[in-house]
Task: inverse folding
């Protein structure tokens, strides 16, 4: 092969590998989605995953939202002061948290915690041949392991986003009233008057999509984990990285869809 075509061949191989990975993930996602409404169902496993994914993720999401809201208020005030527009802090904090930062940061925090845990758990089950044991017992591993986690994450993340939105707006309110000299009643009134129902709803829809992606990536990489501790570690890393990239990419697409006339 000519040296000129070496880089092109490498680029072609990388492109084909990427397209193959996208196709495998799409097939896996379609298969998992098709099993959600088909029996058998595992409500006990679903409740356990709701507790693990939803309730136990609340502290990290709440703390992230609180400090993000406070920092956002400080930055908007400092930037608005250059144009004598400090009064817009309540409105911009509210819309920034509810539309973008709440869903995205909540999704990324859950991705770091949940996608890694799911990939490690399922990858370990594969290495120790527990998934093969499920098949031997006539239990579909996709149905028993993936579907409850995907469904629980899709349900839990919009709730976490809603709680995170409230905490984030409160963080901005607390910093603005205690550090920036805003009147508390006026701040709350401006926040309520400015926000529209679609602002909140769009963030909750994003949360559901992000939750689906987080659990999907955790399950996919866990079930395709390599052998040994190194394979499980690689699957855990890939799950977090791919979930984070998909969250950011889908956030742009959803924002384009929701807010572009």
Result:
């Amino acid at each position: 092969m000519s040296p000129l075509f070496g880089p092109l061949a490498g680029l072609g191989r990388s492109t084909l590998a990427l397209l193959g990975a996208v196709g495998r993930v799409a097939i896996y996602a379609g298969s998992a989605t098709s099993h959600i409404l088909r029996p058998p169902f595992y409500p006990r496993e679903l409740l356990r995953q709701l507790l693990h994914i939803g309730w136990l993720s609340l502290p990290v999401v709440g703390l992230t939202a609180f400090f993000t809201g406070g920092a956002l208020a400080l930055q908007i005030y400092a930037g608005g002061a250059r144009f004598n527009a400090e009064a817009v802090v309540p409105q911009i904090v509210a819309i920034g948290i509810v539309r973008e930062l709440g869903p995205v940061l909540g999704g990324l925090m859950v991705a770091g915690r949940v996608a890694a845990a799911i990939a490690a758990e399922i990858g370990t089950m594969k290495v120790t041949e527990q998934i093969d044991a499920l098949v031997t017992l006539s239990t579909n591993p996709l149905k028993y392991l993936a579907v409850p986690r995907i469904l629980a994450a899709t349900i839990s993340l919009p709730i976490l986003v809603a709680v995170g939105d409230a905490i984030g707006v409160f963080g901005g309110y607390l910093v603005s009233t205690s550090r920036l000299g805003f009147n508390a009643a006026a701040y709350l009134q401006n926040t309520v008057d400015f926000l529209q129902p679609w602002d909140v709803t769009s963030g909750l829809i994003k949360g559901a999509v992000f939750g689906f992606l987080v659990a999907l990536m955790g399950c996919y990489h866990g079930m395709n984990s390599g052998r040994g501790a190194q394979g499980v570690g690689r699957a855990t890393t890939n799950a977090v990285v791919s979930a984070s990239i998909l969250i950011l990419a889908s956030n742009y697409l959803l924002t384009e869809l929701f807010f572009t006339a």
